[in-house]
């Protein structure tokens, strides 16, 4: 079989698993997770085969692996869909396959496979825990009541992501994109009986849908303008891009390429949770933790960045390296940098361990978007890769922490929030593997110099911004990096260091093997993934390992970007912001008690941050409530019921009245009157004539005789004249 | 379309097994209804077309009036109250009749001017016909006839603002009636546009396509908004029909404006496919609402909540059908919506962009429906009182669900047929 055929097969196992589990095996947990994990493993294997095969192709960017098949016959043309593996998709495939498989395995442990069913557990709520049958009075975690369903959903999710990655056109990319949207809805609302989870699920779906409808417009606009949606045909066609870039559309002075690029980018803003469509992502933490890892690291949010990376030639059409940025790029640079700083600042004041990570995700995605906005294509792709690994690690780590804490909570019976970091502390000794994994993830996130993957990718973005003189972006991102270090260290310190703040934290225990092994695997990548992108010009260690990543991914573009010259300034900045942030975090939080030591000195700013700049409230006031009012009061009750139905009723009433007029003044008096008149005349005539109907034959004979004689006389008189 | 009708009719009959009173007349009327619908789709003669068109009305009137929901009343003017189903059936009947009147007159006019009722002959001669009628120029005659046709079909589709009969009729009709109403009867209007209006009046259609597109956009937006504003689940689904049929009309309007171009072909393909898709998904949605209504005897969204654990299979099917209705890629409606939007974009850019508001709210009401029935804390009063969907009901749904998925993943088999027809008729 050819590599292209293998590529076609990649998304299929999870899809089959989804249907198999839902239709046949849902009653059996063991079979269900075997099917689910088996499918993920199969896709992983296929993905690796394709990845290795792609590595073996010389100049993969120019000769990608493609294959397509007709899908929609339209007029005399046929719209084709197919698969495409070029360097960008190969690299994405690599990290998606790994993280997805790890998350599947982790889910087995996270949902307490092998534990008894809880007496109070119902589908739709998180398991409450059960009593151990062998040791009465001893509490153990209970298995998730909807265990099989969970695997079905994440399998579908994996299908969506794989479809998106291997697509060779925007339409199937959009299909995968939306299927993930559905899955995130289903999974965020997995514990649907919780009103908060239900609201979060709807919020996630609707907020991303705002982006999606714009993206759909972008897709149709592109299709109308070029007659195709195939990536290669559009993005590798220099003349076409130039034409698009020079055709004005008459809106805001944009070119066709600019308009389409912006429309598509709004899709990314929704999916990758960039400001101002970021509000759904933190709430999405209502879902089970593997879902958070799935959405926030491996798949959905990465999909947004992946898409803009894909269409980068379109976004940058008309731009030459070092020259003025195109409108979409400027917008991206602004939104990305703003989101990076904005979200990092919120993350500093969050209590919930997963929410911190959620905001950090927004912030890190902002880095990538900003990098792409200033044209640092490879750096953005690199950060996407490293971020996927360390963020999956952090989320799974936090899941492990929560799991351990829940164990403690069930053991002690305390009524506390197992996700609140101010209830934790000192978990280092209780959960050593989780601690080390989390530490690696956190350091990688904050860009701990030289060792971690996060350092290399973040440094590359900063270096690129510096080299091209994008000072504002550089400064904002550097400042965000300080905050990143701060909140990462805050998290690590509050959770793992110091002494336990609650009894539950004292009784927390390390998670099971199925959870810790994925952590270890991801930890390896969170460090090692950076080594393939060390610039050749880096002093000391540059060139020890070949800077494979830049060459490989850069080859995706028609004109591979140049590697940035080494400069000591951004490097020093990278060093100092990362270390400074981490040190600050440790200093501030190492003796923290039940309250945040920053709350007092920051005053109202802290409250502002804690409430996420009140964006939720603002949107509720600005959009949600007016929309509800408009739908219910205006569109339905006023417009339909009052205006349109009112008009109809009035018409009916007029006709009704008209009918009554006709009835009362014409039908009744004239028509009926005439009829009645005729009838009554006839009747009275009959009544009069009735008198002669006596029934006596003699009288009748008399009449006959009289008539006969009368006739006779008349006749005789006439004839005798 | 014939395929759709013959598919849905048996399913609808199967769906009406819970009808307990007056079964014989019910079934007889149902079959008469099917005759009418098939007749419309199959007739190639204007008079026959009209006869079948009217024939479909009568059984529907009685179905709503006699077997519709028993409770509820509507207040008319001056405190006068009528039963909801009586009101709905009457409104449906009168409204459609009002449209038909013009249609009948216009058909007569056509017959007088051209001397034939045969559609195929008319398509040949009519657009290039010259002459006059009652001293009016042929252009005026055509314009008048166009509007008579267009309004008749617009009421049937229904195009905003002629749509208010629809929520009433759908809400009050028995489940099977709603299925047929949404699945097939609405398509008659759109079919009329495609079969008669576009071929007969290419120029007029082009001239007034902008107005039609505006109304279609209004239908998409206000249909979705009104659906979002509902508490009554069935009425919400009914409004979703307005929303979805708006997309069909938008496609038709775009095709009318730019007949012969590539975009027009795509828009028409999309419109026809959307008709089919809406037939499937709306029928499925109405059926599912019927299923839950039979068990709980309420349609009020606020009365339910958290039913998912009680009715898992029903819940999954509801989510699946809802997603089809929402236009989720990978399921049927997305393909057609995409094609319509693609076709309409270069022709009516602004309207297409505005209709996205409608698409956004489609998401909002669908999710509201799911959230209020299945999700959230369990409403304790239903515990132990409702049972999951039974085998007969699954058999009704199965073909619809399979079609939704099949058309979403591999639409080519149906689109091929549609495409050939479109190219042949309008290419």
Q: What do these coordinates show?
A:
The complex is a heterodimer of chains A (721) and B (427). In chain A, the strands form 2 sheets. In chain A, strands 1-2 form a two-stranded antiparallel ribbon. In chain A, strands 3-4 form a two-stranded antiparallel ribbon. Chain A is 69% helix and 3% strand. Chain A has helices at residues 3-9, 12-25, 29-55, 87-110, 147-166, 170-188, 195-226, 231-235, 238-246, 256-271, 280-283, 289-298, 300-310, 312-315, 327-347, 353-373, 377-412, 427-430, 432-446, 453-467, 471-496, 503-506, 513-528, 548-554, 568-589, 599-602, 604-610, 615-690, 697-720, and strands at residues 65-74, 77-85, 130-131, 139-140. Chain A has 29 helices and 4 strands. Chain A folds into 3 domains: 3-610, no CATH class; 617-690; 695-721. Chain A is mostly helical. The model of chain A has no long low-confidence stretch (mean pLDDT 82). Chain B is mostly helical. In chain B, the strands form 2 sheets. Chain B has a two-stranded antiparallel ribbon with strand order 1-2. A two-stranded antiparallel sheet of chain B has the order 3-4. The interface between A and B is large, with 60 and 65 residues.
List segments of chain A where confidence is low: pLDDT < 50 over at least 5 consecutive residues: none
Helix fraction bin of chain B: over 70%
Taken from the alpha-carbon principal axes, the silhouette of chain B is globular
Q: How are the strands of the largest sheet of chain B arranged?
A: 1-2
Keywords, please?
heterodimer; A: 721 residues; mainly alpha; 3 domains; two-stranded antiparallel sheet; 4 strands; 69% helix; B: 427 residues; 2% strand
Concise structural overview:
The complex is a heterodimer of chains A (721) and B (427). Chain A is mainly alpha-helical and 721 residues long. Helices cover 69% and strands 3% of the residues of chain A.
Helix and strand arrangement:
The complex is a heterodimer of chains A (721) and B (427).
Chain A: H1 3-9, H2 12-25, H3 29-55, E1 65-74, E2 77-85, H4 87-110, E3 130-131, E4 139-140, H5 147-166, H6 170-188, H7 195-226, H8 231-235, H9 238-246, H10 256-271, H11 280-283, H12 289-298, H13 300-310, H14 312-315, H15 327-347, H16 353-373, H17 377-412, H18 427-430, H19 432-446, H20 453-467, H21 471-496, H22 503-506, H23 513-528, H24 548-554, H25 568-589, H26 599-602, H27 604-610, H28 615-690, H29 697-720
Antiparallel strand pairs in A: 1-2, 3-4
Chain B: H1 2-15, H2 23-42, H3 46-55, H4 57-67, E1 73-75, E2 81-83, H5 84-114, H6 119-125, E3 132-133, E4 136-137, H7 138-156, H8 165-172, H9 175-200, H10 202-228, H11 233-257, H12 262-296, H13 312-326, H14 332-344, H15 349-373, H16 391-409, H17 412-426
Antiparallel strand pairs in B: 1-2, 3-4
Helix pairs in contact in B: 1-2, 1-9, 1-12, 1-16, 2-3, 2-4, 2-9, 3-5, 4-5, 5-7, 5-8, 7-9, 8-9, 8-11, 9-11, 9-12, 10-11, 10-15, 11-12, 11-14, 11-15, 12-13, 12-14, 12-16, 12-17, 13-15, 13-16, 14-16
């Amino acid at each position: 079989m050819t590599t292209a055929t293998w590529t076609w097969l990649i998304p299929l196992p999870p899809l089959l698993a989804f249907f198999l589990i839902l239709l046949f095996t849902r009653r059996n947990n063991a079979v269900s997770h075997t099917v689910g994990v088996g499918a993920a493993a199969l896709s992983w294997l296929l993905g690796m085969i394709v990845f290795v095969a792609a590595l073996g192709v010389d100049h993969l960017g120019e000769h990608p692996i493609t294959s397509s098949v007709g899908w929609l016959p339209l007029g005399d043309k046929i719209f084709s869909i197919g698969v495409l593996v070029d360097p960008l998709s190969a690299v994405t495939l690599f990290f998606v396959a790994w993280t997805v498989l790890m998350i599947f395995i982790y889910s087995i442990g996270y949902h307490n496979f092998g534990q008894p069913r809880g007496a109070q557990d119902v589908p739709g709520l998180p398991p409450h825990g059960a009593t151990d049958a062998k040791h009465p009075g001893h509490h153990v975690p209970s298995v998730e009541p909807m265990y099989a369903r969970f695997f079905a959903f994440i399998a579908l999710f994996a299908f969506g992501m794989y479809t998106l990655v291997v697509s060779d056109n925007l339409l199937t990319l959009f299909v995968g994109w939306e299927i993930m949207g559905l899955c995130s809805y289903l999974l965020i609302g997995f514990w649907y009986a919780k009103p908060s989870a239900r609201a979060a699920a709807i919020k996630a779906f609707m907020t991303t849908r705002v982006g999606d409808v714009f993206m759909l417009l972008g897709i149709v606009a592109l299709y109308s303008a070029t007659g195709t949606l195939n990536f290669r045909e559009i993005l590798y066609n220099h003349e076409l891009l130039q034409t698009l870039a020079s055709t004005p559309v008459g809106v805001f002075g944009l070119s066709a390429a600019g308009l389409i690029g912006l429309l598509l980018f709004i899709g990314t803003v929704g999916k990758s949770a960039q400001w101002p469509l970021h509000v759904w992502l933190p709430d999405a933490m209502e879902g089970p933790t593997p879902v958070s890892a799935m959405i926030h690291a491996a798949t959905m949010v990465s999909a947004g960045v992946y898409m803009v990376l894909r269409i980068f030639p379109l976004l940058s059409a008309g731009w030459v390296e070092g020259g003025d940025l195109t409108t979409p790029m400027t917008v991206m640079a602004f939104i990305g940098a703003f989101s990076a700083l904005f979200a990092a600042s919120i993350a500093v004041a969050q209590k919930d361990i997963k929410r911190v990570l959620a905001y950090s995700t927004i912030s890190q995605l902002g880095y990538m978007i900003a990098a792409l906005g200033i044209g640092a294509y490879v750096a953005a792709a690199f950060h996407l890769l490293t971020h996927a690994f360390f963020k999956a690690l952090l989320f799974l780590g936090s899941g492990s922490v929560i799991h351990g804490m829940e164990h403690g909570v069930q053991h002690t019976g305390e009524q506390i929030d197992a996700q609140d970091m101010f209830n934790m502390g000192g978990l280092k000794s209780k959960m050593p593997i989780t601690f080390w994994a989390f530490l690696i993830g956190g350091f990688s996130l904050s860009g701990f110099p030289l060792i971690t993957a996060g350092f290399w990718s973040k440094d590359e973005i900063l270096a690129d911004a510096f080299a091209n003189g994008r000072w504002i972006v550089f400064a904002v991102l550097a400042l965000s990096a300080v905050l990143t270090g701060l909140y990462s260290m805050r998290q690590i310190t509050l959770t793992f260091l110091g002494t336990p703040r609650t009894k539950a934290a004292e009784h927390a225990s390390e998670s099971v093997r199925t959870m810790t092994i994925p952590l270890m695997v991801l930890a390896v990548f969170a460090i090692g993934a950076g080594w393939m992108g060390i610039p050749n010009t880096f002093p000391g260690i540059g060139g020890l390992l070949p800077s494979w990543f830049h060459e490989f991914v850069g080859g995706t573009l028609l004109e591979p970007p140049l590697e940035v010259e080494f400069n000591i300034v951004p490097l020093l900045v990278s060093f100092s912001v990362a270390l400074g942030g981490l040190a600050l975090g440790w200093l501030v939080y190492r003796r923290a008690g039940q309250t945040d030591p920053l709350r007092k000195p920051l005053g109202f700013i802290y409250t502002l941050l804690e409430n996420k700049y009140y964006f939720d409230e603002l949107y509720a006031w600005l959009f949600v409530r007016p929309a509800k009012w408009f739908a219910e009061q205006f569109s339905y009750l006023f417009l339909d019921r009052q205006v349109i139905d009112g008009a109809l009723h009035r018409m009916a009433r007029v006709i009704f009245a008209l009918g009554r007029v006709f009835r009362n003044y014409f039908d009744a008096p004239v028509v009926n009157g005439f009829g009645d008149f005729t009838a009554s005349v006839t009747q009275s005539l009959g009544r009069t004539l009735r008198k002669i109907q006596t029934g006596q034959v003699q009288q009748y004979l008399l009449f006959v005789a009289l008539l006969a004689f009368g006739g006779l006389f008349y006749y005789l008189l006439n004839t005798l004249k | 379309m014939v395929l759709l009708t013959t598919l849905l009719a048996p399913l609808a009959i199967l769906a009406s097994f819970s009808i307990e009173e007056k079964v014989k007349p019910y079934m007889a009327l149902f079959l008469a209804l099917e005759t009418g619908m098939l007749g419309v789709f199959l007739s190639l003669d204007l008079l026959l077309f009209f006869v079948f068109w009217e024939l479909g009305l009568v059984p529907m009137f009685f179905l709503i009036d006699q077997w519709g929901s028993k409770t509820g009343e509507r207040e008319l003017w001056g405190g006068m109250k009528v039963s909801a189903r009586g009101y709905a059936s009457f409104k449906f009947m009168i409204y459609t009749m009002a449209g038909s009147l013009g249609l009948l007159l216009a058909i007569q006019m056509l017959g007088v001017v051209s001397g034939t009722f045969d559609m195929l002959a008319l398509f040949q001669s009519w657009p290039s016909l010259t002459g006059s009628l009652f001293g009016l120029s042929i252009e005026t005659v055509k314009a008048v006839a166009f509007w008579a046709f267009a309004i008749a079909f617009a009421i049937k589709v229904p195009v905003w603002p002629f749509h208010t009969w629809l929520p009433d009729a759908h809400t009050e009709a028995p489940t099977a009636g709603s299925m047929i109403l949404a699945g097939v009867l609405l398509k008659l209007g759109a079919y009329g546009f495609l079969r008669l209006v576009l071929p007969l009046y290419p120029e007029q259609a082009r001239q007034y396509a902008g107005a039609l597109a505006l109304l279609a956009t209004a239908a998409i937006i206000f249909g979705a908004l009104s659906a979002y504003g509902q508490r009554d689940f069935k009425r919400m689904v009914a409004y979703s029909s307005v929303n979805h049929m708006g997309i069909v009309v938008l496609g038709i309007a775009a095709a009318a404006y730019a007949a012969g171009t590539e975009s027009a072909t795509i828009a028409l393909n999309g419109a026809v496919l959307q008709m089919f898709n809406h037939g499937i998904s709306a029928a499925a949605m109405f059926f599912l609402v019927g299923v839950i209504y039979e068990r709980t005897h309420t349609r009020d969204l606020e009365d339910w909540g958290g039913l998912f654990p009680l009715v898992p299979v029903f819940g999954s099917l509801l989510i699946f059908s809802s997603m089809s209705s929402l236009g989720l890629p990978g399921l049927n409606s997305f393909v057609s919506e995409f094609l319509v939007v693609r076709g309409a974009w270069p022709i009516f850019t602004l309207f297409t962009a505005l209709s996205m508001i409608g698409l956004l709210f489609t998401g909002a009401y669908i999710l509201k429906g799911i959230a209020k029935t299945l999700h959230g804390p369990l409403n304790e009063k239903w515990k132990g009182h409702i049972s999951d969907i039974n085998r007969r009901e699954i058999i009704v749904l199965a073909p619809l669900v399979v079609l939704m998925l099949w058309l979403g993943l591999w639409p080519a088999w149906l689109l091929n047929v549609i495409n050939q027809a479109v190219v042949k008729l309008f290419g």
